[in-house]
């Protein structure tokens, strides 16, 4: 996905809030912005255009 393996490693540490779409650090228990508890890992591959 990224231009280098180092960039890919940093991108994979990001978690996204399912409610407000805020970026959070890896290992977060809840969203830093809204406090929502359900987070998902960031996509590692770009979505293909239709």
Question: What would your notes on this structure say?
Answer:
This protein is flat. The protein is α+β, with helices and mostly antiparallel strands. It has one domain. The mean pLDDT is 88. It has one helix at residues 5-11; strands spanning 15-17, 23-24, 39-41. It is built from 1 helix and 3 strands; from the N terminus they run αβββ.
Quick structural overview:
The protein is of the alpha+beta class and 50 residues long.
List keywords for this structure.
single chain; 50 residues; alpha+beta; 1 helix; 14% helix
Topology diagram in text:
Layout: H1 5-11, E1 15-17, E2 23-24, E3 39-41
Antiparallel strand pairs: 1-2, 1-3
Oligomer: single chain
**Shape assignment:** flat
Structural domain count? 1
Radius of gyration, whole Å: 12 Å
Number of strands: 3
Could you estimate the helical fraction of the residues in percent? Answer: 10-25%
Secondary-structure element series: HEEE
In terms of DSSP E residues, the strand content is: 15-25%
**Average pLDDT number:** 88
Distance between the termini: 18 Å
Q: Which residue ranges are poorly predicted, with pLDDT under 50 across at least 5 consecutive positions?
A: none
- Backbone structural class: alpha+beta
Walk across the major sheet and give the strand order: 2-1-3
Discrete helix count: 1
Mind summarizing the main beta sheet?
A: 3 strands, antiparallel
